[in-house]
Specification:
This protein is mainly beta and 277 residues long. The protein folds into 2 domains: 9-148, Chitinase A, domain 3; 167-276, Chitinase A, domain 3 (Roll), CATH 3.10.50.40. The protein has helices spanning 26-29, 99-105, 209-212, 227-233; strands at residues 37-40, 46-51, 63-72, 77-80, 88-91, 113-118, 138-148, 167-168, 174-179, 191-200, 205-208, 216-219, 241-246, 267-276. Strand 1 (37-40) and strand 2 form a beta hairpin. The protein is globular and about 65 Å long. The chain starts with 25 loop residues before the first helix and ends with a strand.
Length: 277
């Protein structure tokens, strides 16, 4: 699951595609024995429930843990969690996953097993992803493992930089140190926990971990985030707060991302290093 090469909510949970060629296995289809309830939402999303869950449906902001197997319409698997033995977790209704997941998982309670057939406009649209051609309808076998109350949002106003020195690296990354940290230095290969608020140059917010109330974690320096993040976070200590101004060649370049980051966009991030481990 990559916030990783997509540091935006719209695609984070489903972008870590394995590109495998295996067909759907029994792990994902155990719930298909017995009656199936099928519904097509106005959005075009089709939900086929093989096993009903217990309890109430997840509410916006709650954390949902889901096992899944993702396939193209021809049955080719591009990603799955069953074989990895660990479900993914995300906050529902806040843009951390593709719209088809927010809509579909939102109709399922704990213990439910279902198939989601997601039209391209609720998935990645015309944007090609690893193992997923542009304009693909996606099919997911899902099992809802747990639903928990999510963390509380944290208020954040973009940090001002008036009177602060702007530094520029050789790559073209610009940054301001808002507050010097006194904790451990970030190092390549270590896992860092970072709060962030991401904006376009005009101040338009496209994603914020503060609003979700939970920082992101990723291994630093191994390419799991955009290059501007690997470089920028490596300059900081635990407790540091900084504003990163990331040129497009260190972000998403000509392709843009998530439908909210235009091609060739310079990105601005308020970042706060919470932990290094």
């Amino acid at each position: 699951m990559k916030l990783y090469t997509l540091i935006i909510g719209a695609a984070i949970a489903l972008s870590a595609c394995s590109g495998g060629n295996e067909d759907a296995s029994a792990d994902a289809n155990d719930g298909q024995m017995g009656d199936t309830t099928s519904v097509v939402l106005e959005s075009g999303l089709k939900i086929e429930v093989y096993q009903k869950g217990d309890g109430i449906l997840p509410q916006m902001g709650q954390k949902v843990s889901v096992h899944y197997k993702g396939m193209l319409e021809n049955g080719q698997v591009f990603d799955e969690s069953f074989g990895k033995g660990e479900p993914i977790s995300f906050q529902i209704g806040v843009g951390q996953v593709i719209p088809g997941w927010d809509q579909g998982i939102g109709q399922l309670s704990k213990g439910a097993k279902a198939k989601l057939t997601i039209p391209a406009n609720l998935a990645y649209g015309g944007r090609e992803q690893p193992g997923i051609p542009a304009n693909s309808t996606l099919v997911f076998e899902v099992e809802i493992m747990d639903i928990q109350d999510g963390p509380q949002p944290i208020a954040h106003e973009p940090w001002a930089t008036e009177g602060l020195e702007m530094k520029t690296t050789q790559s073209g990354l610009e940054y301001y140190i808002i507050e010097e940290g006194s904790g451990a230095k970030t190092e390549p290969g270590k896992t860092v926990s970072v709060h962030y608020h991401g904006m376009l140059e005009d101040g338009t917010k496209f994603d914020s971990s503060y609003e979700r109330g939970e920082p992101i974690e990723f291994p630093l320096g191994v390419g799991q985030v955009i290059p501007g993040w690997d470089e920028g976070i490596s300059l900081l200590n635990v407790g540091s707060k900084a504003k990163l101004v990331i040129p497009s060649h260190l972000a998403y370049g000509e392709r843009g991302a998530g439908g909210v980051i235009p091609p060739n966009a310079t990105l601005v991030f308020d970042v706060e290093v919470v932990e290094v481990k």
